[in-house]
Write a structure and sequence with these properties.
single chain; about 575 residues; Jelly Rolls; 3 domains; 6-stranded antiparallel β-sheet; 4-stranded antiparallel β-sheet; about 25% helix
Length: about 575
């Protein structure tokens, strides 16, 4: 396929956003508003000056040197705008296992319980049905709007939902019954919790409920980020607690350690070490590598032939397994949360020595190498701990990772491309089979019909062989677009994990669009429902809002683009679990 043919096949019917002077009817008078700012609406509407002073007087904040923070983000401003007070009654569920969260909590008074085992029953962990009602579905049939995006006149600034509205009501538990039937851990005044999910953008690892009436200080991600960035004491506290909680959580979620007795697991946890590779804002490093013409922005973890001194358990992120092939490295597979590396080599070495085979006394070496793609948490468990507590209990029959080198080299190209482009980060990547696609644009029309006439993706993108990854939000495992959002407008849905944008709190700063490594977020000019453009009253410049695919989160049938394709040429897939062409969804 020539470059010209490929460009013709993937040409997008959706034009780029136009400048305001060409996008609107000049006869329409523009609406002027102050340009939205980060703290136009606080996280909690009831954070009065008295409450701010109460928080400042607590030991966790009294030690912070306010002069270390920049004038643009003063400490009092962070407390007043990025924090809120939450009152909970006995039995109230504060965090729910499996939900996505963007905030941490500091216990100001009272006691809470973390449910460790066996977890809250399924009937307690109910989920809201956010899909459209039949009435809303019929309402969606109204004529499409003729402007790129509309915004209600009153919603230039909008209050953030209160606790009950935001959570939808997480439910209650019977305190005495839950404590008697479950293994729990106590949280008391001064304890910080929830930071693991907020920092890693991963689901909550456990449910937490109030044992008694309690007062909590909820700190959304943006405030937590500023405290960690500018105050050494908070940075040390957050990082230390993060490592401790992450190490324990990752071990307990591994198939090899989940059923370990608590006393044995405690010994393993004590002997294990927590390691990180890459950066939490890895997208910046990737962009720099591309600008400098580098082939890769990966961070080495270990090399082929290194001494196997312990098992590596992947906690978060993705890592590439490779083997030397001539003058380059051949990609064999990718590892993600819960996967292990080095197990086969260590186990075989232990079996040999247990059988008294000392003919080869050389320590075990790794048959493959491992590199971090983006940011990766790794738990390293020493070999002697495995030999004492794990190897006697397992019968390892899985082939080594190096056995993947036996497959044909031609099968590697797609695998390498997926990792090189970081597409393994996407959980709902829009993948189009160009051999099936007839360019009818039904997918684009269906998307536009679902979103008031405004399609949320562009039918073009990187191509490998017959596969194209379209420019549509991939709802990533690690959505780095959320990192620098000043208001929290771009966020994960509490229960589904879909990455969505709250149009009522987006201030149009474009940090999410600039951060997206895949160019899947667009900035569009705003207008009133009657078509009048909305402009900055000071500069008369356009007011923008971020927009992207929301995975049709409100629809009963799921993404409209997939349902509309008459040739079954479009699928939303998790490319991290499609290691070879034979595993493609068609």
């Amino acid at each position: 396929m020539t470059t010209e043919q490929q460009a013709a096949l993937t040409r997008s019917p959706m034009p780029p956003a136009r400048p305001v002077e060409s996008a609107w009817d000049e006869s329409l008078a523009a609406t002027s508003i102050p340009r939205p700012k980060r703290w136009d609406e606080p996280f909690g509407a009831d954070m009065t000056q008295a409450r701010v002073e109460d928080v400042l007087s607590r030991p966790e904040f009294a030690a912070i040197r306010a002069d270390q923070l920049p004038a643009s983000v003063p400490l009092e401003g962070i407390i007043a705008n990025d924090m809120r007070i939450v009152e909970v009654a006995p039995g109230d569920i504060v965090l729910r296992e499996g939900d996505y969260g963007h905030s941490a909590f500091l216990v100001l008074s009272g006691q809470l319980r973390v449910v460790l085992k066996p977890g809250l029953p399924a009937n307690v962990l109910g989920r809201r049905d956010r899909r459209r009602s039949w009435l809303r579905l019929f309402a969606g049939l109204r004529p499409a709007k003729s402007m790129p995006e509309a915004r209600e006149r009153r919603s230039a600034h909008h209050a953030i939902a209160d606790w009950e509205d935001m959570t939808g009501g997480l439910g209650q538990v019977d305190v005495a019954e839950t404590i008697s039937q479950s293994k729990t851990a106590l949280l008391k005044e001064g304890d910080l919790f929830g930071e693991l999910a907020a920092l890693t953008r991963l689901p909550r690892r456990a449910s937490i409920f109030a044992e008694e009436a309690a007062t909590l200080l909820e700190i959304r991600w943006q405030g937590l980020r500023e405290l960690r960035r500018y105050d050494p004491s908070w940075r040390d506290r957050i990082d230390r607690q993060y490592k401790q909680n992450a190490l324990s959580a990752h071990l307990k979620s591994s198939q090899f350690f989940v059923d370990m007795p608590e006393q044995v697991l405690a010994k393993i946890t004590k002997a294990a070490s927590f390691e990180t590779y890459g950066s939490l804002d890895w997208h910046h490093a990737r962009r720099r590598a591309k600008q400098q013409g580098q082939d890769s922005d990966e961070t080495p973890i270990c090399a082929e032939g290194d001494y196997a001194d312990g098992l590596l358990l992947i906690g978060t992120g993705f890592a590439r397994v490779w083997i030397t092939h001539g003058s380059t490295n051949r990609t064999l597979t990718y590892l993600s949360a819960g996967d292990v590396f080095g197990l086969h080599e260590l186990h075989q070495d232990w079996l040999r020595r247990s059988a008294g085979d000392d003919a080869n006394a050389r320590p075990a070496t790794l048959e493959t190498g491992l590199s971090a793609i983006g940011y990766v948490d790794v738990i390293r468990i020493p070999a002697h701990v495995l030999e004492t507590h794990l190897f006697p209990c397992i019968d390892l029959e899985e082939p080594p990772l190096s056995a993947l080198a036996n497959r044909p080299l031609l099968d590697d190209s797609l695998l390498h491309w997926v990792g090189e482009e970081h597409f393994i980060n996407g959980t709902k990547t829009m993948l189009i089979d160009l051999a099936r696609c007839v360019r009818c644009d039904e997918c684009v029309r269906a998307c536009a019909a679902t979103h008031d006439g405004n399609p949320r993706f562009i039918r073009s993108g990187p191509v490998h062989d017959q596969w194209m990854v379209a420019h549509a939000c991939m709802h990533c495992v690690d959505p780095v677009c959320m990192i620098d959002c000043p208001t929290g407008a771009i966020h994960r849905e509490l229960d589904s994990g879909a990455v969505t944008i709250n149009p009522k709190t987006c201030i149009g700063c474009a940090t999410c669009a600039e951060a997206c490594p895949y160019g899947n977020i667009r900035m569009v000019e705003l207008c009133e429902d009657d078509g009048r453009p909305i402009v900055d009253e000071a500069t008369r410049a356009s007011i923008y809002r971020a927009t992207k695919c929301d995975l049709c989160v409100d629809n009963f049938g799921g993404p409209a683009c997939v349902r509309a394709c008459p040739q079954d040429a479009l699928q939303r897939v998790d490319l991290a679990h499609l290691p070879r062409k034979g595993d493609m969804p068609w």
